[in-house]
Every structure is written in C-alpha cells, then in structure tokens.
Amino acid sequence: MKVMVSVKRVVDYNVRIQVKGDGSGVNLDGVKMSMNPFDEIAMEQAVQMKDAGTAEEVIAVTIGPAKAEEQLRSALAFGADRAIHVKTDEEIQPLTAARILAKLFEKEQPKVLLTGKQAIDDDANQTGQMTAALLDLPQATFASAIEFDGDKAKVTREVDSGLETIEVDLPAVITTDLRLNEPRYLKLPDIMKAKKKPIDAMSVEDLGIEEAVKLNVTKTAPPPEREPGVMVEDVNELVSKMKDKGLV
Amino acid sequence: MSKVLIVADVFEGELQGSTARAVTCAQDLSPDSVDVLVLSASGSAAEAAAKIEGVTKVLSVERAENEHPLAATFAPQVVAAAKQNDYTHVLGPNTTFGKDLMPRVAALLGVGMITDIMAVNGPHEFERPIYAGNAVVTVEAPGDQVLVASVRCASFDAAADGGSAEVEALSLDAELPSHTRFVSADTGGSSDRPDLASAGKVISGGRGVGSKENFDIIFSLADKMGAAVGASRAAVDSGFVPNDMQVGQTGKIIAPELYMCFGISGAIQHLAGIKDAGTIIAINKDEEAPIFEVADYGLVGDLFKVIPELEEALG
Ligand SMILES: Cc1cc2nc3c(=O)[nH]c(=O)nc-3n(C[C@H](O)[C@H](O)[C@H](O)COP(=O)(O)OP(=O)(O)OC[C@H]3O[C@@H](n4cnc5c(N)ncnc54)[C@H](O)[C@@H]3O)c2cc1C
Ligand SMILES: Nc1ncnc2c1ncn2[C@@H]1O[C@H](COP(=O)(O)O)[C@@H](O)[C@H]1O
C-alpha cells in the first residue's frame, strides 16, 4: 500500500523558548529546528511498514518555508521514497493544513495518512482529525500499536482511561503517540542517499484550496511565574512545612 | 449573545468530571444558555449532567451506536445538534475524548478550533498555552462563526452539583458511518485510588524509581496520603506503570493542591503538566535537577530513604 506521512518543522523539543519582550511572539532567531517528534514516530512507522512489505511507497509531506526542506530530507533519510513540499512563509493553522493534506490525499490516494498526534509548537492536536473529517475517512488518534489486516487496521489508542482498541476500514488517518515505536537514528549513508531523492515543490495556490479563516493571535506572553521555592534539609522539616500549609 | 453547547464526556455510561469543568469555562462567556449534549447508549449520564449547576438544558441522544465514544460516529451528531439550535459556541473537555472529537467537529463545521482554553477574555477572545505551556497566547476568533474549542480542565474548577435542568430527548438527522468500530478497552483493572485528573493530591514517580516493583513504594505512600498516582514519560516508557498515568505536555495536565514527585528530573514536557499545581514538592538525589527550579519545597535525597521516613513522620 501507499503511505503518506506529514512532517512539520518545529522548534527542537530540547529548546527552552523565549517570549519576545513586546509580546509579538516567540523568539525563533537562531533557534534549533527539527522534525516534530511525533512525526518522527510516524515516519518510523511508515518505514517499518516498508521493511515488513506492508507498504510499497512512502511519501513525506510538509507545509512550510523553504527551510522545511531540511525536515523533508530527514524524512527521506528515514526511508521515504519521495517528498512533497508545499511552500509557504505564512503561518499555517491546522484547518488550512488539513485542507492541504486532504487535497494531496485525493491526488495521491494513499491507504494510510500518518500524522503526529500534535505539533509541539502550537500543541493544537487537530490536523489529523480535521483531515479525516474533510475526507470523510475513519480516524484512529493517539496510536500506540497498529496492525494491518487486508483492508482494515486495528489500532490501539492511548486514552485517559488506559488503552482502547478500534478497527477502521482503510483508507484511514492515523495519528501517532509516543509509545508506537522508537524512531531510528539517521545514518550517514541514508542521509547521503536522501539528497538524491525527489522533492516535488508547489505553492498553496497551486493546490487551489481555500485557506481557512485565521484565528488571530494578538498577544504572546510568558506563563504566570511561580513564587520561588525553598530547599528543606530533611524529612522532618518537609513534613512541618506540609503541616503548616494544611497539606497533610 | 452566547448560546453554548457542551459535549459531555461519558465513559462506560458514566458522566466524567471534565464536563462540569467545561460548564465553569462556559460561565465565563456570560452566556444566555449552557446546554449539555449527552451522546450515550442508555443510562444515567444525562441525569447526572442535569444536576450540574448552571446547565440550562440537557440534550440526550440515546442510541446503540453511542455506547463507545468514537469520534467518527459522534462528530456528525454534534454537528447536527449544533446546527439545529444555532449555537454560537461548541465546547468539549481537553481529555482524550475531546481531543479526538472536537477537531473533527470543527472541520465538519468549516471553522478553526481553539485547543485548551485556559482563560476566557470575552465571547471570542481566549488564552491558551503553546510550546508546552512556556508561552500563553491570546487568540481572537472571528465573531461571525461558530466557535469550537476544547477546555483545559486544569484551568477550571468543576461546577457544583445542585442544578435541575430539563432533559430533552433529541432526535438528530445525522448519518452515522460504519467504517470505525470499537473492539476493546483495557482500563488496567479498577482501582480505589482517586482519579489522577481531578485528585487534590498527586504523588508521582519517574525513572529514578527504577522498576515496576519499586513503584509499589510510590503507591504505598499515595495510599497513605489519599493521593492519586502519576508518572513521568520515562517511567511509562520503561514499563513501570501504564500510559494513563503519564503527566505532562502529551499526557495528563493536572492541577492538584499538592504535587509531590520522586525521581523526576523536571523536563519541560513534564512541567507542562503540573504548572497549575498548588504546591509542588520534589525529592531528587541530584541537587542540580531542574525540578528544583519550580518546586515550592525541594529535598535532595534518595527516594528509597526519604519515603520510609515520610511514612513514619506522617504516622
Ligand atoms: C514529544 C515529547 C513529548 C514528551 N511528553 C512528556 C510528557 O507528557 N510527560 C513527561 O513526563 N515527559 C515527556 N517527555 C519526556 C521528557 O522530555 C523527559 O524525557 C522525561 O520527563 C524524563 O522523565 P524522568 O524525569 O522520570 O527521567 P530522567 O530525566 O531520567 O530523571 C530521573 C531523575 O531521577 C533522579 N533519581 C534517580 N535515582 C534516584 C533516587 N534513588 N532517589 C531520588 N532521585 C533519583 C535522577 O537524579 C534524575 O533527576 C516528552 C518528550 C518528548 C520528546
Ligand atoms: N505545516 C505542516 N506541515 C506538515 N504537517 C503538519 C503541518 N501542520 C500540522 N501537521 C501534521 O499534523 C500533526 C498535528 O499537528 P497540530 O494539529 O498542529 O498539533 C503534526 O504532527 C503533523 O504531522
């Protein structure tokens, strides 16, 4: 089957972001950027399907600036066969991203679209579900195990109460959770090979989709600060502090 | 004029506490009405929703297909209910139920969605966290569209019981797909411990606890203190405890009065889940651990020595 994977360029998960003093946003100058960690998990899933013979072709898709080509190259180094780069310098919100992914889905007709469960920059947790809705397809979010069986997939989902297993007809949209797999480390030969793989570039206009009405971000602020704490010497001191506060 | 529809979180026939938190968030909109939509197979969830203070009306859709909350089945019903009564706002909780469902609802309605409302500034202006809560943005949604959002449960207290809203059986003109089917649920057996999402006290363990067996001392302390038990991602990934105990950016976001953690380093992704805790107490053997930067009380020590001492001191 054909598998499509969406990958987003985001601030690396190790970076402690700084809010700009004038409240206009987050400072991204010189900050390390990476593939969204959940998309790495999605890529790993797709490539494992290729290794197992379940998938014949893996296509990676990103929507983002010219530099997002770096993340597509990483996806190709994971083992994607080719990539699609929808170029834009604008901030793309989930509904528009979903419209773009839905359009590409219709063009490419994959059996599965794998997306991350959430992008760790906007923490929206929306795009996969929205894409499934627009395509009128099943969705299996927060996947921690996927089993393909002909035209169906059984997906175990991480939910608040524990685990839930559902069955979906293919094609379907599946969003990945942390424990689906451990993404591989990219090796130099694969990185070199990825440089020669094709990337099809296009603009949002080329796709002829209507951009969704934007939610307008008017201010970005640091989170409320907590009062600085104190170190205690031993358990007795800790317990007496807890008693003072009525916590025990 | 705000007419709010809240989608109730019902699990195994029972109304979840997150619904009453969404009602509190809805009150901040100074609404004309707050209706709760209960999709279920049968049972008492609609009655429970009617008791939440501040609820105007409960709309109950009982059908066999609603036994398990599948987003693909629920979304067309929520959309039909939202259109039928011209709601201005459709809210759900930011539990895995709401995270799964609400974006599907928004896309079917053709509108963007606000994830994780943490404060309401006006009918169309909200605050929400981004970057694991390391920044808070003010977002303005268009006033001429229905607003779809999820409510960050940790930011709102549950509305009290004491209401007596009318329950109206709703029949909806919605075609339900058959392409998504429930297979099974694994809740890891029932537990008498308080629910992690709403508990007043939470005791957590991380990689430092070392093993599944060792985690027993965390459970034992929690039982002594009447606390729920949480964990870091590393503890879950290592198989010490099940996934539903993960606290953090991509796990549960909680706001207990007391959060006490052992052997957790304090990665930003973990801190994202506990920023609203009343008092944070950290026990870690490494005095440089970043958790001490946010802890109200920090104790440098070996958790295997500290916990027995604590149990003794607490009597
Ligand atoms: C996309 C993404 C999402 C993530 N989401 C989450 C999330 O939701 N929640 C989450 O928790 N993490 C999350 N993480 C992981 C996070 O980055 C950290 O890796 C994780 O929180 C570390 O867990 P830990 O503190 O238990 O382990 P470690 O960082 O390994 O820390 C263990 C600590 O235990 C201490 N210790 C060891 N032995 C003892 C002892 N005997 N007594 C006392 N102290 C001891 C050590 O000093 C150390 O500080 C996410 C990561 C990514 C990339
Ligand atoms: N601009 C984008 N380019 C590619 N994939 C995206 C983009 N935005 C969102 N996605 C995908 O949707 C997932 C969820 O993102 P979000 O809804 O923003 O939390 C991500 O993990 C990606 O797989």
Detailed description of the structure:
The complex is a heterodimer of chains A (248) and B (315). Chain A has 248 residues and is of the alpha/beta class. Chain A has seven helices and 13 strands. Chain A has helices at residues 37-51, 69-78, 94-108, 127-135, 188-194, 204-207, 235-244, and strands spanning 2-6, 9-11, 33-35, 57-64, 82-87, 112-116, 139-149, 152-159, 162-169, 172-176, 199-203, 216-221, 230-232. In chain A, strands 9-8-7-10-6-1-4-5-11 form a nine-stranded mixed sheet, sandwiched between helices. Chain A has a two-stranded antiparallel sheet with strand order 2-3. Chain A starts with a strand and ends with a helix. Chain B is of the alpha/beta class. Chain B folds into two domains: 3-169, 3-Layer(aba) Sandwich (Rossmann fold); 201-314, Rossmann fold, CATH 3.40.50. Chain B has nine helices and 18 strands. Chain B has helices at residues 18-27, 45-50, 71-84, 96-109, 215-225, 233-237, 268-271, 291-294, 303-314, and strands at 3-7, 10-11, 14-15, 33-40, 57-62, 89-93, 113-117, 119-122, 125-130, 135-140, 147-151, 166-169, 180-186, 201-205, 228-231, 258-262, 279-284, 297-300. In chain B, helix 3 packs across helix 4 (96-109) and helix 5 (215-225) packs parallel to helix 9 (303-314). At the A-B interface, helix 3, helix 4, strand 7, strand 8 and strand 9 of A face helix 3, helix 4, strand 7, strand 9 and strand 10 of B. Bound molecules: flavin-adenine dinucleotide and adenosine monophosphate (AMP). Flavin-adenine dinucleotide sits between chains B (206-208, 232-235, 246-251, 263-265, 267, 269-270, 273, 283-286, 289, 302-304) and A (13, 37, 120). The site of adenosine monophosphate has 22 residues of chain A, from helix 1, strand 4, helix 3, strand 6 and helix 4.
